[in-house]
Design brief:
The chain has 496 residues and is an alpha/beta fold. The relative contact order is 0.13. 42% of the residues lie in helices and 19% in strands. The longest helix is centred in the middle third of the chain and has 22 residues. Helix 10 packs across helix 11 and helix 13 packs antiparallel against helix 14. The chain is built from 17 helices and 17 strands. It has a 7-stranded mixed beta sheet, with helices on both faces. Strands 1-2-4-3 form a 4-stranded antiparallel beta sheet. The chain is globular and about 70 Å long. The site of 6-O-phosphono-beta-D-fructofuranose has 10 residues, from loops.
Length: 496
């Protein structure tokens, strides 16, 4: 088998192999003329995928397969095509090209012999889609712009946006993201596409919960969309993995103010939220100091302590409580009393929304283990109900903590719940840069045919990480993290 890689424009990948069909069941009739055979190859792509190892990625609507009697006649027919040795093939595109080529080769080895015919495969991305899912976050629009500008300008694709997360994919609520739609959005907070926490496999449609994965797959095929870029956190990665397993081309970008997405150094949204929470702690100092109060500031972050630890360190909080380190109220009281003895009659307590006492952590742990062990559906429902009840109770945790601290220290206590302020407004420079570089890297990966991955930040670089390494995982603050060591050296109370 003879082969070559030919590159026409950045958006087009051609793989050529010379072959002759074996006289066996390859899903094509053996005596077809070259032209007829070409038509059959074109229309029987699914059959080809079934009979051989021809990858689905080359059987999509953008794949066209033709054949000529020789490489020379193919080149003559294709006019401008020039042959480029594989070694000089564009460095970035080569791994994907080789992977596709190897799969195609396996199919050809099985079903073809000799070299009288030419097999030409063209994979060309034409249209991609983008959606934002989960909680909104600063930097989402910067990422949409990054993906969009690279797609439109650099690669020459069409790009559409689906509204309100995965629901927009089901309900075909889309907008064309042309140059005008992408202009002026870099600095805008929230997401121009809207968002939701809908899951493709458990979507409420007319009061009924349905699996809409098949509908999404058919819609995308119908609309000629080659890939869906999903901007979201861990939950979105989980949903995207389901779509990937259903044969849909997806790529995710890590977004969340919580910074808790596995396998990436950072998520966009975190840096801005960190600045906002830090500024809030800075501002709370003056009231705490003037009124000799304890101010308990509740910081978001879901079940991870990145935001609270970062803002607590940057804002000089006296007590920092994070989910990774269960606390004893008595330890916090001791730290506040120690400060009082030093003449500091005020304290700032930065508490993560997911932080909890040792006792509560034990109760949660028991409930989670019960869920893990549950075998019957009834057991599962019961265990989930227990966890939901604990979640409801936990919502009042910061208020209860402040009350306990007031009673035990005799210092007036106040609570400030920072809430959604942390997710709002214009993204900071660090988030704009991160979102933009992840967005443009995403377009590069689509061009390379690398799907089913999250674009991770790795130092100054980006890298694709398979979605199954991200979905359902959480990046908590490691107990040996340098920020924890730093806090301890400052004698900041961590509640343990
Ligand atoms: O994931 C971002 C986040 O803001 C978390 O910090 C918080 O726990 C959660 O979203 C709040 O979710 P919702 O927007 O559904 O209230």
């Amino acid at each position: 088998m003879d082969s070559c890689f030919i590159r026409l424009q950045p958006t087009t990948l051609y793989i050529c192999c010379v072959y002759r069909l074996r006289n066996q069941d390859h899903g094509l009739s053996g005596n077809a003329s070259p032209v007829q055979l070409s038509m059959r190859l074109h229309t029987r792509r699914t059959a080809m995928a079934n009979v051989g190892q021809l990858p689905t990625s080359i059987c999509n609507s953008n794949c066209s397969i033709r054949r000529w009697s020789s490489l020379a006649s193919a080149q003559t027919a294709c006019g401008a095509i020039s042959q480029v040795p594989a070694s000089r093939f564009h460095a970035r595109a080569r791994p994907a090209a080789n992977a596709q080529f190897e799969s195609a080769s396996a199919w050809l080895d099985k079903y073809t012999i000799g070299r009288p015919y030419l097999f030409l495969m063209v994979t060309k991305i034409k249209r991609i889609a983008i959606l934002t899912a989960g909680g909104d976050s600063p930097g989402l629009n910067a990422a949409i712009r990054g993906v969009g500008k690279a797609a439109l300008g650099y690669y020459g694709w069409e790009i559409v946006g689906f509204r309100d997360g995965f629901r927009g994919l089901v309900e075909n609520r889309r907008i064309n993201l042309d140059g005008a739609a992408l202009s002026g959005i870099l600095t805008i907070g929230g997401t121009i596409l809207g968002t939701s926490r809908d899951k493709p496999h458990r979507m409420v449609i007319k009061s009924q919960t349905k699996d809409m994965t098949g509908v999404i797959r058919n819609n995308l095929k119908k609309w000629g969309i080659d890939c869906v870029v999903c901007l979201g956190g861990g939950g979105t990665a989980k949903n995207a993995l389901r779509l990937d397993r259903a044969g849909i081309h997806v790529i995710t970008l890590p977004k969340t103010i919580d910074n808790d997405v596995a396998m990436t150094d950072a998520t966009f949204g975190y840096a801005t939220a960190l600045d906002i929470a830090t500024e809030a702690i800075d501002r709370l100092h003056s009231t705490a100091h003037s009124h000799h109060r304890i101010i308990v500031a509740e910081v978001m972050g879901h079940r991870a302590g990145w935001l609270t630890l970062g803002a607590g360190l940057a804002g000089g909080a006296d007590v920092i409580l994070i989910p990774e380190i269960p606390y004893e109220v008595e330890n916090i009281v001791k730290a506040i009393r120690r400060r009082s003895k030093q003449g500091k009659n005020f304290s700032i307590v930065a508490v993560a929304e997911g932080a909890m006492s040792h006792d509560d952590a034990r109760i949660y742990d028991k409930a989670r283990k019960k869920l893990e062990r549950a075998i019957t559906l009834d057991d599962k429902i019961e265990a989930k109900r227990e966890i939901a009840a604990l979640d409801v109770r936990h919502q009042g945790n910061t208020m209860r903590l402040a009350k306990q601290l007031e009673e035990l220290t005799h210092l007036e206590s106040r609570v400030t719940i920072l809430g959604y302020v942390q997710r709002g407004g214009t993204p900071c420079a660090a988030d704009r840069i991160l979102a933009t570089r992840l967005g443009t890297a995403c377009a590069d990966l689509i061009q390379e045919g690398k799907f089913g991955v999250m674009v991770a930040a790795r130092g100054d670089r980006t890298e694709p990480v398979p979605l199954d390494k991200v979905a359902g995982k959480r990046k908590s603050v490691p107990l040996d993290h340098s920020w924890i060591g730093t806090a301890r050296r400052l004698e900041t109370c961590l509640g343990d």
